[in-house]
Every structure is written in C-alpha cells, then in structure tokens.
Design brief:
With about 270 residues, the protein is α+β, with helices and mostly antiparallel strands. It has nine helices and 14 strands.
Length: about 270
Amino acid sequence: MTDATFPHIAYSIDSRVMAFSTTREAYNTSAPYDGFNITHYCGDQPAHVAACRSRLCAALHVAPNRLVLPRQTHGTAIRLIDDAFFALTDEERAAALDGIDAVMTAATDCCIGVSTADCLPILLYDAAHHCAAAAHAGWRGMVGRIGSRTLRAMTAAFGTRPEDVRAVLGPAITLPSFEVGDEVAEAFAAAGFRLTDIGRRFPARDGERWHIDLHAAATIDLCEAGIDLCHLMVSATDTFTHTDEFFSARRLGIGSGRIFTGIVLREM
C-alpha cells in the first residue's frame, strides 16, 4: 500500500487501510526529543517536527493538510473529520482540534491519529462502512470509557456495528510499570471496572500500591460494547521499559517526544 520510509510498527487489520505506531529512531535532534516526533505541542523544535511530518506524509502519500492530530487534554471529546473540517482555515482547524482526545473519519487519503507517551492509543476500523477512529486513553480517558464512547460516536455518524469493528490497542505503559495512587484505582472502580480484572497491588516503599493495566481496561470496555475479542489486536510492548524504541513521559519526562498512532483509509 505504501513505500513507507518512516520508523514504525504496522498493524495488519485490513488491506484497505494503513494502521501504525511510530517508533523513535534517532533523527537529527537532541535528548529528550531524539527520535521521530510529529507532535507539535510537546516542546520539540518546530523545524524537527516539520521535518518528521513531511517525511510521514511523503511515505503515506497523504497531503500535509490531511494529516490530523488533535491537541489532547485527557478528556473524552470526539471530533468528526469530514469535508467540512477540511474546508476550515488552519486557525479554525487548530481550534476545532483543541481539547479533543478522539477523532473519526470516513474520508480517504487522510491520516488521523493520536499522540501518546505511556498512555494507550486505540484504533477502531469499521470494515463494513470503511470508516475509522483513533482515541487517546490515559487513565482519565479510560475511566471515561473513551473507547466505547468513540465506538458509539461511530455508530451515530456512520452506522457502525460493533461486530464489524477491528481494534488495535497500541504500545503503552503496562501493569508492572504503571503504579498509581489509591484515588486512581478508586476512580476505575467507580467507573464500573473490577480492580481484580485490571489491576494488582505491588510492594512499595510506603506499603503496597495499585498498578493498573490500561490494555486490560480497554479490552473490557470495548468487548462490553460488543467488539469481538478475536477482532482485537494488542501490543504487549511496555513504553516505560522500552525507551530505546518508544517515548515515555514517565521515564523521559513530559518534555519529550511522542508516539503517533494513526490510520489511513484508501479508496475502496
């Protein structure tokens, strides 16, 4: 589908789409931004971000103005990317994407995606209606069940049925590394998650601390919403322990690069 020459891992979910997560690869910049980064609001040099974006768009055969990355805020707001969106000015697009943590589209030859650095990226593809979504799920987004919210938004916009959806849960921090406070565990419990299904308590300096499994929480959320477990692709890579390959905000600091997990729909 593409002669992609950007560092990434690809997800084989359908022959009509390109789904991927970028990896770091040293790319002419200094730590903690040493790697492939297209996220413009994490403090990286604009010239480096622009170079990475240009490289990505050229590899995907996507026009630069059809690369869509929202400015995420750990919420659950979802934005439809359609012809009306692409008709907006640059300033209007930026405003429309501010505070958005999931995007969805049926437009072909554009790339939608989310940026993460320990949070969980979720891709949803509806094979029957040839439409897709990308969602950013940190613990707050997961407590807000952004995965199933996005699925319902696709149903409202495109007629998506859960049984037609293929999902990808990309690279993120995993349970052994994701220590949280009791208030976070309590928030998951209040949202209807059984802590024994998504977490464990590990010894810590001050006793025991909860560790949360974002992949498990997302799997439960999406399967409860009707997606077949066999249609779920899960990356087991821990971003916190694999900073040679992926950015990690917990390991490298918030002021570092980001993974971009995206999807491109091709003409049917």
